[in-house]
Design brief:
Elements: E1 5-10, E2 15-21, E3 31-34, H1 48-51, E4 57-60, H2 77-91, E5 96-101, H3 103-114, E6 119-125, H4 138-141, H5 147-164, H6 202-211, H7 215-227, E7 232-236, E8 244-248, H8 251-258, E9 275-276, E10 290-294, H9 319-327, E11 331-335, H10 342-345, H11 347-358
Length: 362
């Protein structure tokens, strides 16, 4: 298998750290893989050698993470999407196959919707496009300043170890955080239903702890959620563009929901009210082939009796699920029977699907 190498790439705005694997091939668009939160490009360690046998692959750390620059500026999704284009321009890449997981998928979606001519294929793994999920309560917590700032100062390492090493979190649940409380306490829950030690070695955990011990990464994690996902309530309106009227909710309003006397769950605007975070892109589509790979974490209704859904089962029935068909007319879907961190928890399934899709077999 080809070797994974590491290098810095200077774009017009950022110095990106990127992992690279495979050799350039004439007439073949390279593959760019974007990681999720709270990871780095290290999360693609199982995919790069396999994909690198067929494609020239890059896995950059996104802005604020790992070895990429961390300028403390206010962000929005347009900046993160432009980062991808700047990274490609710095490497002389005209068109690429784009893959994203979690936050990498949010960035990849924004890039493909805003710059569709630059991408020949788009693969999205357990992610979102324009609609926030009601059960993702951390999206509300991040907007409640200074809760996230205080939490990262005290618990950044404990948080990483609770996610990837299965260690009991030494912190409380809501309202202090969205995440696990002391074992056995009210609000204690795991981010992942699987035993993390089956998927992450001690070296993997140490990598993520070290990477997320930088206060500048805390700043960027907060920026991503607080300002790159501006929540809007959507109301059907036949006279509005695209049939929807959007009403902005400020971070202060969302924070008030989080700190409701009965917690977020008791606030009347939380239950069944999916927040749109990309109303400016509601009219946009990316018409090239797109694959959405999902787990029970985000699409539980698709996994009946713990069985994989049929190929090209299109999630529907709520604004989050419907957003994929809304933005991607040429959509194909596949399930992965694992937790949220699909590339690390189900690497063989991920590699199989990505190879088939990126090669045009799906």
């Amino acid at each position: 298998m080809p070797k994974i190498t590491s290098r810095q790439v200077q774009s017009r705005s950022l110095s990106f750290h990127t992992l690279e694997c495979g050799e350039p091939r004439d007439g073949e668009d390279p593959v760019i893989l974007l990681h999720g939160f709270p990871q780095t490009s290290h999360m693609w360690r199982h995919q790069l050698p396999v994909l690198g046998e067929r494609f020239h692959c890059y896995a950059p750390d996104t802005r604020g993470y790992g070895g990429t620059d961390k300028p403390r500026v206010r962000l929005d999704r347009s900046i993160l999407a432009r980062d991808v284009i700047d990274f490609m321009d710095a490497l002389g890449i005209e068109r690429a196959r784009l893959v994203g997981h979690d936050w990498g998928g949010i960035i990849a979606s924004a890039a493909a919707l805003k710059y569709p001519d630059r991408f020949s294929r788009l693969a999205l793994l357990d992610t979102l496009v324009s609609v926030w999920i009601t059960w993702g309560i951390h999206g509300y917590w991040f907007k409640a300043e200074p809760d996230a700032e205080d939490f990262w100062k005290k618990h950044h390492a404990d948080f990483i170890r609770s996610v990837f090493a299965g260690e009991s979190g030494k912190f409380g649940g809501p309202p202090e955080s969205r995440w696990a409380g002391v074992e056995g306490s009210e609000g204690s829950e795991a981010l992942n239903d699987f035993d993390p030690t089956n998927f992450w070695s001690s070296e993997d955990v140490d990598h993520y702890v070290k990477a997320f011990s930088d206060p500048d990464s805390w700043f960027h994690s907060i920026e991503y959620y607080r300002h790159c996902l501006p929540f809007h309530v959507a109301t059907p309106d036949p006279e509005a563009p695209c049939g929807q009227r959007f009403e902005f909710r400020s971070s202060q309003q969302i924070a008030a929901m989080w700190h409701h006397e009965n917690l977020l769950f008791g606030h009347p605007e939380w239950n069944d009210n999916f927040m749109v975070f990309a109303p400016e892109d509601w009219h946009l589509t990316y018409d090239a082939p797109t694959m959405y790979v999902f787990s029970p974490f985000l699409v539980p209704q698709a996994f009946v009796d713990d069985q994989l859904p049929q190929d090209d089962y299109i999630p529907s029935g709520n604004p989050y699920a419907d957003s994929f068909a809304h933005h991607f007319p040429d959509l194909r879907t596949r399930g992965a029977q694992c937790g949220h961190f699909i590339p690390e928890e189900a690497p063989e399934r991920t590699n199989e699907l990505l190879l088939q899709f990126l090669s045009g077999e799906i």
